[in-house]
Amino acid sequence: MAFFEPAMTDRLNAFFQHDADLAWEATEPGVKRKIMAYGEDLMVVRVVFAAGAVGKAHQHPHRQASYVESGIFDVTIDGRTSRLHAGDTFFVPSGLVHGVVAVEAGQLIDSFTPMRKEFL
Amino acid sequence: MAFFEPAMTDRLNAFFQHDADLAWEATEPGVKRKIMAYGEDLMVVRVVFAAGAVGKAHQHPHRQASYVESGIFDVTIDGRTSRLHAGDTFFVPSGLVHGVVAVEAGQLIDSFTPMRKEFL
């Protein structure tokens, strides 16, 4: 784990993450994320979207499960699209192309296994 | 996976889970949960607590990361306690004893790796 930044390495396997102590990072236009809890094989990331913002289609070997905390999202996975509202979830098996469009502003709670090391 | 109930087996690796289609199950007093997205090595579960409800101390080999969607929780992991509010998270390494007390009514979004087969 020597390639992690010290601050991030210190947080690996940490028990508690307080929102107020952690910074947002901009990703795509109208999208920002905050890395929350993580261990080697599990990571939780908050992702906030402005209305109309796009998480453009991409793929990764990690499995992903995402919870819609707020907003409305059109989610496309492997060519299938569904409109999701607060309380809904989606699941992305390894390697499948997926993307989202925020129909209304909102927040996703993304979980990944293994952790997304490239986010650190 | 032959030991799963058919309805649950059908949902393994399913892309989309709509809240309105899924049922709550009572667990402990004042606590209910709803199984959301899951694959073999990742599962997301919504857990709603009434004010004062307790998720009593327990342990499991699965790694767990939980996001506080709403409410206030006193979370104890391996003898250390922290008070968490909406937007905070906690992480439970494999096998560590953990439990929560809902200081105010609220909801946790629990992620597990691997999935909690015993929940199905």
Describe the structure.
2 copies of one chain form a homodimer. Chain A is mainly beta and 120 residues long. Helices cover 5% and strands 55% of the residues of chain A. The first copy, chain A, is built from 1 helix and 9 strands. The first copy, chain A, has one helix spanning 6-11; strands at residues 16-17, 25-26, 31-39, 42-49, 54-58, 63-77, 80-84, 89-92, 98-113. In chain A, strands 2, 3, 4, 5, 6, 7, 8 and 9 form an 8-stranded antiparallel sheet that branches. In chain A, strand 3 (31-39) and strand 4 (42-49) form a beta hairpin. The longest helix of chain A has 6 residues, at 6-11. Chain A is globular and about 40 Å long. Mean pLDDT of chain A is 93; it is low at 1-6.
The counted number of beta strands of chain A is 9
Mean pLDDT of chain A, as a whole number?
Answer: 93
Q: Summarize the main sheet of chain A.
A: 8 strands, antiparallel
Helix-strand string of chain A: HEEEEEEEEE
Number of helices of chain A: 1
Most extensive chain interface and residues per partner: A-B, 41 and 41 residues
Coarse structural class of chain A: mainly beta
Compact description:
Chain A has 120 residues and is mainly beta. Chain A has one helix at 6-11; strands spanning 16-17, 25-26, 31-39, 42-49, 54-58, 63-77, 80-84, 89-92, 98-113. Chain A is built from one helix and nine strands; from the N terminus they run αβββββββββ.
